[in-house]
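Progress narrative, Year 2. Work on Fatty acid desaturase family protein from Octadecabacter dasysiphoniae advanced from sequence curation to structure prediction during this period.
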Amino acid sequence: MGKNYDLTGPTGRAALANGTANPAWFRPDVDPKDIRVLMQKSDAIALRDTVLWLGLMIVFAITATLLWPTWWSVPFWLAYGVLYGSGADSRWHECGHKTAFKTAWMNTIVYHIACFMMMRNPAVFRASHVRHHTDTIIVGRDPEIVAMRPPDLINLALRAVGVVDVYDAFKGMVRHARGRISGEEEMYVAPTDHPRIFRTARIWLAIYAATLIVAIWTASIIPLLLIGLPRMYGAWHHVMTGVLQHLGLAENVSDHRLNTRSVMMNRLNRFIYLNMNYHLEHHMFTMVPYYNLPKLHALIKHDLPAPDPSIISAYKRLLPVLIKQLNYEDAVILRDLPDGATPYRAEADKLRRHAI
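Result:
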């Protein structure tokens, strides 16, 4: 029988009572002046990457539409889908942190565009992500744990094609449009945000309804291939990369080196993912913008476990752990630290008995 991950259940209350929740996270000993330099934001860099992202989407969408219904359109639909259903995920994330652009309203605009693409209510998911960083992989507290233990591998596979996420998103939209907040959302969403949540849901449902009506009226699937469906057929990349952030690592610890993973990726993957492959570094210093994460990695790598050298190598290490967790849910990956690094906290000692 698995653990109780419900935010309204006894596990979360126990985490608050025993001090597991809201831990004092480990941070490498670095000069604060170096971190302040890396925290500097740039409108120029973020605008360049945003124009490239949206510009490519427009080019791919126009080309795919012009080539429809021939098979030549398929690669362009797939490319458009990845930038929509996965590229928007990383833009949602970074602009949600308000660190991509120096100018606040630019972050806000891109955040709302990406939220719509990813079907994530802006107010709900900003609050959810704050909790995720406060209580990263704390059972009963973190609303963004991708897979419980034992892992539901079928659920993970369905997420790769957006089935689970889109179903949950529309269920949430309907609930919000009716003026209701779920029990879990009440745990981290401020009541003052409720009217905004309800209004957004109603607007979004109207847009999706209008898109469906246009598709029926024109007897064409193209409107749905442009709005809505890319959240499904383009989701595979953000699932492939997102699964590697925390899965297979420790729960209920206060050292991100134990529960968060960095993975080296090529430039194309890093563009889609906005350098979130440096995920351990991001969790340690959340206000460092995505374009400075490689520099942050170089600054603190002496205190971090070595990143996985590629996506393939990361999965080669992760998959055996997930399979073992089906019968032995405490199995985890415990990575070696470099010589001279600050040792793991004492909580790592009990993990060593279950490490593979």
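DSSP finds 19 helices and no strands in the chain. The chain has one domain: 10-351.
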